[in-house]
Amino acid sequence: MFSNFDFDVIIRALPYLFYEGMSFTLMLTALSALGGLVFGTAIALMRLSGYKTLGRIAGLYVDFMRSLPLVLVIFWFYFLVPYIGQWLTGAARPISVGAFASSLITFIMFEAAYFSEIMRAGIQSISRGQPAAASALGLTYAQTMRYVVLPQAFRNMLPVLITQTIVLFQDTSLVYVLSITDFLGAASKVAQRDGRLVEMYLFAAIVYFTISCIASFGVRRLQARIAIIR
Prior knowledge:
By secondary structure, the protein is mostly helical. It has a single domain (about 20-185), classed as MetI-like fold. It is about 80% helix and about 0% strand. The protein is built from 8 helices and no strands. The chain has helices at about 5-50, 50-65, 70-90, 100-125, 130-135, 140-170, 185-195, 195-230. The longest helix is centred in the N-terminal third of the chain and has 42 residues, at about 5-50.
């Protein structure tokens, strides 16, 4: 089966695969995780606030985003939002969003729904006595969240947040549908150019598997360390 397997095509493509493809994948993962975490934390605070309207809006957003396939959201944002922008601004032509901006905003919006649930669980894991004690010391709600609750919630939820980021790293391969040169897109271009589909797709799978396994091992070590601290 592997008698015609060409390792040289992989070796020759390594600089292109990692310098252009993997660097883009890691950048998109990092930016999406950061944006999703900030946006998700805001959504979690909305759901936990005493204002029912804010809680319902945040709940609807989370349920809506989690019920949609990610690839559908990517297509929707890339093809439909330019026309919505044209309608809102009254421009003569659809507003160009671009493949990178579309993918980044989509991932931030999508991941925020998942990160918000993780953060909500983390905030609720903090003893209610601590916010009460902070309030008794004169701290406002915002100060209590900033200095007391959120730091502990982030620490408690860090392994789960990293696990979700690993899933995000794998999901970024979907930007291939927008012809963006991420790692999988770069492997696909080399495979089609050289007619070596088996070699390149097998190598891409091994790389994703290896990185995800190493990251998962790091998460397990982190979980054990946090358990000792507790």
